[in-house]
Amino acid sequence: MKNNATTKYRSQKLTTLKLKKASTIRKMEEDGWELTEVVDGKLQTTLHFRKPVKPINMKIAIPAAIATVALLATAGIQSTLEEETDQEASVAASQSQTTTPSHSNTRASTAPDSMAPASTIHSEHSEASASPTPSPTPVGIITSANNPEFELIINENDPCSESIRDFASTYDGETVSFDGSIVNILKLEGYRTVVDVLISPGDFSETSQKGPYFKFEEVQPAVSMHFPADDPAESIYVGQNLHFEAEIESFDQNSCLFYLDPIKTTSR
């Protein structure tokens, strides 16, 4: 019988520099996305994609779920029986030790106070050895000068490269500091002052760009980007060169966006 169900799609919108349009489209299509619309601006291009959502085969999913529940229930019963057997064995061993004191324990109880039993000495040594080990010194602020991996990715030609993904995963939660420029500002519908900010490493250029697509998501520039009191920013604009300190959040392999949480922003 023919399946008349309507295909459902996930949609995604990306904004990128025009010079990166072809590589971004190629990367998305390799990941199974279909390009549906291209909107070219002066410097940036907005790309619209869609991907079909695979329907769940209920004839397979329901029996598989039942089998999984049955397997977990069987495993739980077996685990409970093993725990009860171990508890009975432990009780029996404890009773045996209580009713039949060992020869070594008798000697230890009659030893003079000046001679501590070997078991006591070992216990004290173990307690001293088990003292907490000081935690390692936290990694400082990452810059291109003190971290070769960061130096590598901010000069990377492919914003979707594995080196960028690996760096974001390795240094998740750490702080990076770098010179960069604002290459796109996306106003959010329904908000007057909340925007998404796209940032590129280095000075602004209309013809070339290297490194990741850094993104501050849903920020109020005058507040969330943390300009110092003696260097307030009444507004930000595309092409503005700034210095950023930010916490590493995540890297989205599909959109090739490297998400940061702003800590401090200064003019330069």
Please characterize this protein's 3D structure.
- Helix content is 34%, strand content 28%.
- The chain is built from seven helices and eight strands.
- The protein starts with 8 loop residues before the first strand and ends with a strand.
- The relative contact order is 0.11.
Question: What's the topology here?
Answer:
Blueprint: E1 9-17, H1 21-30, E2 34-40, E3 44-52, H2 58-99, H3 103-110, H4 118-129, H5 148-153, H6 162-170, E4 175-187, E5 195-201, E6 213-219, H7 221-224, E7 241-252, E8 257-267
Parallel strand pairs: 6-8
Antiparallel strand pairs: 1-3, 2-3, 4-5, 4-7, 5-6, 7-8
Task: Please give the largest β-sheet.
Answer: 5 strands, mixed, barrel
Total DSSP E strands: 8
Tell me roughly what share of residues is in helical segments: 25-40%
Q: How confident overall, as mean pLDDT?
A: 75
Beta-strand residue fraction: 25-35%
H/E element order: EHEEHHHHHEEEHEE
Give the N-terminus to C-terminus distance in angstroms: 67 Å
Strand ordering within the main sheet: 4-5-6-8-7
Number of helical segments? Answer: 7
What is the SS-derived class?
Answer: alpha+beta
Radius of gyration from the CA trace?
A: 31 Å
Shape: globular
Low-confidence stretches: 98-138
